[in-house]
Amino acid sequence: MSAPSLPDNAPLIVIDLQTGMFDGVHEPPIHDARDIVERTKAVIDWARRGGRKVAFIRHDGPDGDPLAPDEPGWPVWPALGQAADEPTFAKSVRDAFSNPAFGDWVAGQ
Description:
alpha/beta; Rossmann fold; three-stranded parallel beta sheet; 3 strands
């Protein structure tokens, strides 16, 4: 059985790779953090070279959570190299498509 093919314009979505998961300030960093960043950057570079759009999904935790808006752990991890024209969409539940703006963005691709 062959793998399904993606349309040439299918976007790349990077989900929940935020500073708080890599910096170790509030919790130990995620396992294999350095390699996760390198593999993610490689996929992002592949998408950009192919003319695909890239978007990032950021989890907005509740007040007091390390991933709460404006907390140090909240931003997308800078080492991923998010470009200025690549949008970030917020979510506060386990479903990125709970954000209608994200669904609209994907549909427009």
